[in-house]
């Protein structure tokens, strides 16, 4: 990444009520759709994430941001007022997954692939022809989908 990329604001976003607002200062990875049960439960259908390094995400407002430890390794960030589910990251740090629905448009993003499709819900079919991986490490581990 060049110095130029680091300084440029590439995305803005937040939750439904505005209690969480943030800016992202790096180009975002394409969206990876995750069909695991935890993603489906927290998002309500299935979920997808783009990724940023946490140091390139700047909070304008995080008044209503709450973290839920969803597994031994991971935690999910959501708004405790409006319920928007936005972030996923390892408790130990590393890449921060950001739900693309939280971003202001145009996002310029595209969806690249599906993971954990072996855990997909029985209430939909995956029909977009994108690559599918039955299992996979969580979306935030995948910097370059393919
Ligand atoms: Zn909110
Ligand atoms: Zn998932």
| Gyration radius over CA | 15 Å
Work out the count of structural domains. Answer: 1
What is the N-to-C order of secondary-structure elements (H for helix, E for strand)? HEEEHEEEEEEEE
Distance between the amino and carboxyl termini? 20 Å
Any ligands, ions or cofactors bound here, and which? zinc ion
Q: What share of the residues does DSSP label as strand, in percent? A: 35-45%
Total beta-strand segments: 11
Query: Spans of 5+ residues with little confidence (pLDDT < 50)?
Result: none
Shape descriptor: globular
Biggest sheet architecture: 8 strands, mixed
Strand order of the largest sheet: 6-7-8-9-4-3-10-11
By CATH, the architecture is named Alpha-Beta Complex
Percent in helix? under 10%
Overall pLDDT = 89
Short description:
The chain is mostly beta strands and 146 residues long. It has helices spanning 3-7, 37-43; strands at 11-14, 20-24, 31-34, 47-52, 57-62, 65-69, 74-79, 85-90, 96-98, 111-115, 132-133. Helix content is 8%, strand content 36%.
